[in-house]
Structure formats: C-alpha cells, structure tokens
Design goal:
- The structure is a homodimer.
- Chain A is an all-alpha fold.
- In chain A, 74% of the residues lie in helices and 0% in strands.
- Chain A has four helices and no strands.
- The first copy, chain A, has helices spanning 8-39, 43-63, 68-80, 94-105.
- In chain A, helix 1 (8-39) packs antiparallel against helix 2 (43-63) and helix 3 crosses helix 4 (94-105).
- Chain A is elongated.
- Chain A starts with 7 loop residues before the first helix and ends with a helix.
- The interface between A and B is medium-sized, with 16 and 17 residues.
Chain lengths: 106, 106
C-alpha cells in the first residue's frame, strides 16, 4: 500500500491516541511491577525483575514508533491488542481507518 | 606477593566467610530494592531501578570472585567495607591474615 500523507488534523488525532495508549500501557506496567516487587523474596526474583524490565523497556521502544511511515502499523497493533478502539480513530481519513482496521485483523 | 596455597581448613573458613558476606550483601540489596520499588511512581523510576539492578548484579559478579588467586583481594575488600571482621578470618594462616589486613588498609 502506498504511503498516504497525514494531514495536520490526522497528526493531532494520531498523537493523542498514541500518547494515551502509551500512558495506559505504562500504567499497566507500573501495576505489574509493583506486584512483582512485592512478591520478590530471593535474589533470583530480583534478577528476574531486572531482566523483565529490560525486556519491557526494549519492547516498548520498538512498539511505540511514532514515524508516520510506521504509524498505521503501530495503530493497527494497538487496535488488535485492544489498547485503542476504532472510535479513537474517528477523524482519520476513511481509507486509513480501513487500512488500520485491516492490519489489526491480520 | 607470591601465592600461598590454601589448606583444606582455610578453604572451609574462606568459603564460610565469603558466603556469609555475600548473603548479607544480598539481604541489604533486597531491602534497598523494596524501598526503591515502594517509592517508584513514574516510568522513569522504573527504568532507573532496572539500570540500578543491572549495575548491582554486574558489580556483585565482579566482586565475589571465588578463585583462590583472587580470594585475598576479595576478603581484603570485604574487610575494608566492614562486610567481614578480622575475627572472621581466625584459623587462616597468620601471614595470609596479615596480607588481607594490609589489602584492607590500602
């Protein structure tokens, strides 16, 4: 599919949706961390938490890629993961919404 | 200083002192981690904990080196840090005790 330029309005919507999804995911990560930390009893638990956080940080960096060339894929993944909903994408070009929806269904 | 062979008795003493120091340090690390985890409020706090644990793990691996060729240095450092006391070394060769004490004073 050829790249479809993002209008200023679309960029604003995408940024808001992207940021909200990231904040929501970070909040979940924090809750999960607090649970793991409270349960940690042994040095091995600590090193497991360290490895887990390193992986989470790397995965987040890869997943939340705000290049416009990647953004449909990113939003499609977030839609698939139900981190965002279709109605969050209201205001985006209709073809783009269809493409994002398609990506989420793959 | 030339290497001085470790007798079986000395090895037993060294292993006990070494393990006790490591366990005591790990217990301190756990308490410190629980404090940091309880205070963590932001994603940056999480990544700081991740980086801190990675550093702690690397430092421990380097510090607790149980090769006999390194053990006087290791025990000297533990003595300097007051992680162990001179009386913990009772039963080691007197010259070795003096060397460890000297290392601790450097």
């Amino acid at each position: 599919m050829p790249d479809m330029p993002w209008s200023a309005t679309e960029k604003k919507i995408a940024r808001r949706v992207f940021d909200a999804a990231l904040q929501s995911e970070l909040a979940d990560i924090m809750v999960d961390f607090k649970t793991r930390a409270a349960r940690a009893n042994t040095p091995d638990d600590l090193w497991a938490i360290q490895a887990h956080l390193a992986r989470v940080q790397r995965d987040l960096d890869r997943k939340y890629d705000y290049r416009y060339s990647m953004l449909e894929l990113v939003l499609g993944r977030l839609l698939f993961e139900q981190r965002i909903q279709m109605h969050d994408l209201a205001g985006l070009n209709a073809d783009r919404q269809a493409r994002i929806c398609h990506i989420a269904s793959l």
